[in-house]
Protein 1
Amino acid sequence: MRSTIQTLLVAILVLVSGISEARWLSVDPVKANANNGQNNNRYYYANNNPYRFVDPDGRQSAERQIEQYRKDAEAGNWAIYKPFEKPAIAVTAIMAAPVVAVVGWEAGTAALANPGTVATMTEFAGGAAGVTGMSSGLGQRAQATALIASDRTAQALTSVLRPNGQLVGNVVGGATSEVRTVSPAAFGNIRQSLSNLGAAEGGGNAGYRGTWYTLPNGQGGFGVRNASSGPTMDFNIPGLPRGLKIHQGE
Amino acid sequence: MSIEPRHSYDGMPLTEWIQRVPNELSRDAVGLWQIIPALRASFGLDDQDLEDAVSATIQGLLERGAVPVRCGPKDGPEWLIDDAYGQDWNEVKAKVIADWVRRDVEPDVGDVWFAIISDQH
């Protein structure tokens, strides 16, 4: 789903450039990837493939942003995204109205991970682009920023436990899909990633044999225990299959 | 003709899911916290359909040799048999479901599980 601002930017690109292949008129500040050459032509839009990628602020295509965001989320590197939370002027010379660039960027990211936020994000993007006026847009910005902040934990959880849309690990021994088995290394990584999200010990599950951790921003919690078959994590997290359990395998 | 519910994640039919649940017993106990939320959220069951599916799932666990248990203390046995649900399978199913309905909250990891107890108890 393309947001209002994204659609507007693409339309302007085509109208101003007058060419069939839409290109930005200023250089993309994101440099080429030395390893794979991606973004080598920093004038193109969305990898020249707007059906697969989006480039809401002209800096980087959304699909690559989301992948980088996922890696940063796993590493707990939230701080590097702080500069993008401030209003910025659009990088293209053809955009006369100020645009809160991060909103388009974050909206694309959040919308893909949480379709329930699309309407709110799109509404705000329209306001920020001047469609409904900047004062309205700025008011909505605070609302969207709060929504983004609360959604980050959910996104990070999804990237850790359900990367690429599939639950981590495998189903072993004819179990149901909620019971997963992962390698010891993966088990450790998952546990560390969840700890990095600010999980706090405790949470009112009296009678649980293991240690229960509560996640921030109302994202449920998880427990870690030593079952007879080995280390196991039990999950109660909104947005993930209920009754999710992860065993450490061989 | 009614259409059998399927799991929202992998499309598994309800009857197959119920048959697979006891396969976990060879590795670990199965908690009521796994059964009810999965049947409700992943299969969209509610009311009598949900109770029937919970009952069928518990039946499968009992047939595989499991009994109702609670988590043991951290310095003791992993699981402790919970005698409050009785011995007869129908009694166990009825009491577990009645207890859950009476409390009117989704079970969590501190509630009853089903495990195969060997000589640890």
Protein 2
Amino acid sequence: MYMKVLKFGAVWCNGCLVMRPRWAEIEKEHPWLKTEYYDFDTKKEIVRKYGIDSGVLPVFIFLDNNEKEILRLSGEIEKEELLRVIAEHESK
Amino acid sequence: MVQKIIQSLFIFVFILFFAHPVFAADVTLHFFWSNGCPHCAKEKVFLRTLQETHPELTVKEYEITSDISNVQLMEKIGKELKADISGVPFTLIGKEQFVGYLNDETTGKKIEEAVTCAIKNGCEDMVSGLASNKNSQTSVHDMNDIPETLTIPLFGQIQIRKFSLPFLTFLVALLDGFNPCAMWTLLFLISVLLGMKDRKRMWILGTAFIVSSALVYFLFLSAWLNLFLFLGVVVWVRMLIGLVALVAGGYNIRDYFVNTQGGCAVMGNEKRQKIFEQMRSITQRRQFLLALGGIILLAIAVNIVELICSAGLPAIYTKILSFSHLPSWQYYLYLLFYTFIFMLDDLIIFFTAMVTLQAVGIQSKYSRFSHLIGGALMLGIGILLLFKPEWLMFG
């Protein structure tokens, strides 16, 4: 079982603050899930690499064991929706 | 030269045969007004009293929203006398004109002086000549044609007369202020403040930022209100604000259906970085007073820029407020209440962060619903401003 989630957010972004406790719960319930948080303002290189320069924050990028992007979500996502996505892709 | 003489003669003959200025024994006052105009209503009451004290005075009334010929007559007068006919109430005694009506002590006094002078010296009644083919109205319009109930989308049937101004203030201010994505400066400030060890400094700087932001908004609302009070009920201004309400309503409803994700759009990087840098350097100043002054100035600057983006709802609200006959202090009390409700989400976010020492956000789904409800309300207000402004007179 492997999955990595790159979380892009900012301290000034309301939606990012809303998502923070949701991800904290998910990470606690799924200890095998790897997550990395990147600040939109300070981690410019990776922000550019994943093309987060425009659109909506927060952005969540799901990667497989080959670090290949399998899914990208943005905005305020319900916890149930995130759990569904994780369950759907964890066996892949 | 000959052409000029012919032209002058032509104008002279035209006035002689068609304008028919009448030197009346009694004085006639021509009063142009519109339904839903609070200043007109005020002047109407004054004119009734004036008629009682001056029996020689005849008041002719012309309602301009229900009778196009009254508008045409007003335009004719404007042309003939080179008078300012940009708004109502418009009052004419002889050639003496009055646009707008402030109160009995100022405009009322001037009108009374003009009437007294006309009674004493006589004056020519230009309008009777101009309006020879038009039956002027002498009866006072009954403004009690407001229905008891009104059906508004999502609200159902509401009692018009009980639909209070405080409730409208609360609703519009909530809609105006409840925009979690617009709180980015406050959220950034909170993130900087939470990094401080000095809790007292943290509270004072944060509070100063919020109070300064509120003050700017209060002044902004006051400016709108005073502009509308000054203009009285200029018809095209009311129409324009009605259209703004329709557009704002449509935009809010559209936002409900389009922005289903609820995230915050990434705004201009340079502008944001600049503000953040300033905020960081100001809050970290060793001298407390410099930091305090800096944060106040920054709050004022940031909010003035933001005002440009949020002019619609304050304009609509203050336009409705200007319809009400209220003492000045009550107007400002309403604006204070509006500002408080407008700042409510900021206050909740700030106090929660300061008490729990953790930044929290507000779920955008609530903001979406506020857009939907507010959008429907704005559409209703827009329609009323355009077609039934008197229904929005709460005072």
